[in-house]
Amino acid sequence: MHNLPKEKCSGCSLCANVCPVSAITMKPNVEGFLYPSVDLEKCIACKKCEKFCPELNAPTKNENCDAFAAYNKNEIIRKESSSGGIFSLLAEKIIAQNGVVFGAKFENDFSVSISYTETLDGLKEFRGSKYVQANPKYCYKECAEFLKAGRSVLFTGTPCQVAALKSYLQKKRIDETNLLAVDFICHGTPAPAMWQKYLEYRKSPSGAPIVRTSFRRKDYGWKMYSLTFTYGDASEYINPLNKDKYLRLFLQDNALRNSCYTCSFRGLERASDMTIADFWGIDTLENVPESFKEDKGTSLVFVHSEKGKTIFDSLSEKELGKIQVSKESAILHNPAMLKSKAKKALRDEFTKDISKFDIDTLYKKYGRPPFKIRLKQKMKNAIVKPIKLVLGEKGVKTLKKLLGR
Q1: Euclidean distance between CA atoms 347 and 263, whole angstroms
Q2: 88: buried, middle or exposed (CB in 10 Å: 19+, 13-18, 0-12)?
Q3: Distance of CA 71 to CAs 143, 291, 334, Å?
Q4: Where are the alpha helices (DSSP H) in 269-326?
Q5: Taking the model in full, what pTM does it have?
Q6: Backbone region of residue 99 per phi and psi (left: phi > 0; alpha: psi in -120 to 50; beta: other values)
Q7: What is the C-alpha separation between 390 and 398, in angstroms, rounded?
Q8: Could you read off the pLDDT of 226-246 as tens digits, one per residue?
């Protein structure tokens, strides 16, 4: 991988999947991010790692793009999902065809990897966002074997992982007819070492083991999602995104993988058949039914290919609520579809501190917005809260319209 600068490596692990002599292994750096390590004694200089790399050789992209707001009408699954529950509807379709579904799941130690299921019950482990980079392991090889066997496959992953899969299949000339490739609008992937540190930080005082965790529970609603831990003694930790220290560290963008700041896989044209995400800003659109604006979760769906259109159109009105929207309105509050987060001034310093400091110290240094932003928010709250008490939410929206804001 000599031709790829380290800061551009996304950790997709495709090089390890294609090496014919197993000379490449993925090893974590101090932040827990995986990078390829080459055993030069085994290496036969076939250059397959470079020929397949999606950073060096981008796979074919779909140029079409239609945007929709959508939600799963199964209220239980909608509640269990991060946004509107569209992944589950697509996955159920594939499983019904004797198919296989790939996605991110927690392992027993709560690290995250790409795995697969062939059952409806197995889908539970794949629902919900995992705000830590997943280890792809050998998922591209596994996916290819199912396709060669004539099985239908739904592969869900980050845009770089989907690009890696498509590069693998295209260069191996494997028939993609039965593949539905779905990526999502990716904020960027935070350091796995920070997640492992946080798991240690959140150990139960009673010694009870962690039995379940969720980054996006909706106890306070979809917009104010919460990180939760459930312990073996039935006790729970729960805190919303504006208070939980891990979520704050993640959302301040100091802990993202370096390649995420210059991601090559953003844009309306993608290697995937569909892109799914939270439809942030849906409540600002006019002529949208109230069911889409409920604080239960609404998905943003971009359909890129005919294959994606066919399966999306096959979902019945009984299963799915959907309306088409303009691409402009869809990305207005979802800029990560097109643009990477800017690298922060403290990002390189975070690399040095991740192994030295505990979560409390990291949070104080990297998890809070700059003082000027905090002050501005406090001043805004001091003005807006009294107005809300008098006028209510609808009154505030009306006032903003009158003021042209």
Answers
A1: 16
A2: buried
A3: 28, 9, 17
A4: 290-293, 306-313
A5: 0.90
A6: beta
A7: 13
A8: 999 999 999 999 999 999 999
